[in-house]
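Entry:
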Amino acid sequence: MNNRKRQKLKNTRGVKLNKLQIWNLRQTFATYIAGGLRQFMNRNIYGYPSDLERNEKEDPDGSIAMQEWRAILKEMLWSFEQIANDMKDTPTMKWYGERYKILRNQGISDIDILLSSKLPDIPRDIYQADIKHGERLPHGIDLFAKYFLDLWD
C-alpha cells in the first residue's frame, strides 16, 4: 500500500465508504442505525434510561418504564427506516405510486406520464397526512440524539 492510501485510511480510521455512500451519508448512516436499533430491540433488554423511572408505587417492577423505552426505540427505528428506505413510505409517494400504476395500466408510457403531467393534483387529505409524516420523522431522530448514550444494556 502506498503512503497516500495509508494516510487516507489513517485519516478515516479504517472506515471505507464508496462514493455513493459518501454522496448520500444520510441514507448510509440511517441504514446502519436502523439495523443496529432493530437488533438492539430484538434482544432481551433489561435496562432503560434513568429519566423514565417512576416511583415505587407507580411502577414497582419497572414494567411501565420498560414499555415506554420500547415505544421510544420503535419511534427511533421508524424514523431511521424511513430515511434508509429513501422516504418511499410517505403518503404522497404511495399515492403517486398508485396513480402511476393506474396510468401505466391504461397504456400511457412513462415518458408521457412524466412530460405531460397526467398525474392529478394531490388530494388534500394525502397532503395533510404527508405533513404529519414529515413532523413525525424528526421526532424519532431527536429521541435518538436524546437517548444515544442509553443505547446499551
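The radius of gyration is 22 Å.
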